[in-house]
Amino acid sequence: MNVPNHVAIIMDGNGRWAEKRGLPRSAGHLEGSKTLEKLAIHAIDMGVHILSVYAFSTDNFKRDASEVNYLMDLVVKYFNTKFEKINKKGVKVVVSGRKTNLREDVIEAIKNIEEKTKNNTAGILNICLNYGGQEEIIDGAIRLAKDIQNGLDVSNFKREDFYHYMYHELPPIDLLIRTGGELRVSNFMLYEMSYSEFYFTNTYFPDFDKSEFNKALFMYENRDRRFGGIHDKKGN
Ligand code: FPP
Description:
Elements: E1 6-10, H1 14-20, H2 25-45, E2 50-57, H3 65-82, H4 84-88, E3 91-96, H5 104-117, E4 123-131, H6 133-149, E5 175-178, E6 197-200, H7 210-221
Parallel strand pairs: 1-2, 1-5, 2-4, 3-4, 5-6
Helix pairs in contact: 1-2, 2-3, 3-5
Bound molecules: farnesyl diphosphate (FPP).
Residues 11-16, 29, 32-33, 36, 55, 60, 71, 74-75, 78, 127, 180, 205 line the site of farnesyl diphosphate.
């Protein structure tokens, strides 16, 4: 099977999942967290090396303070306790995004989970938190500018070289999944998704279980990735 190396998920539909059941939106986020925990392990079992997920965008701060706080509480709780299974599985957890505006306990939980899992080699779970794709490019460009000021020669600088300036130097995304029925990328990993295959599903994220994930993998297997060239997948 041709398994994507790097899969990214825009985990959308938590709120609607809850509303459909007459539950508060927070119930959807809780269920979504459980789904994420299971998927992170399943993805590794299927041979995916890197799973990136959009947990909280820089723009999600526009939501009610109570929802923002609930999501941050969940992150702290999952990083501090619930991610033990993920750690045991040998997955390295990294967090992408700006640290500005994050609560102290969230920053502390990020440090702890990154430190605890830093030597794991079975795979990488990249949690995007207070994250924006344009922001990641801007932050990278600023770091590159500093290196240029310090004498870096960019006469031969290539697009591959710019990955070094992304938050964790992760490779390009092969497969981008968005749950919840919307057809947009919402400022997710813009630089890394330039040649991604897209998979959109109406399924709300809490219901996006292993078999739903596998459907996306099967779809991916049958895509003809040309990267701007004209050959088909048999190399003709
Ligand atoms: C989008 O659904 C989802 C979010 C803004 C949050 C996603 C977060 C999680 C799944 C939990 C992450 C937890 C950890 C431990 C990292 P929405 O609320 O916009 O849904 P809607 O479009 O139906 O309203």
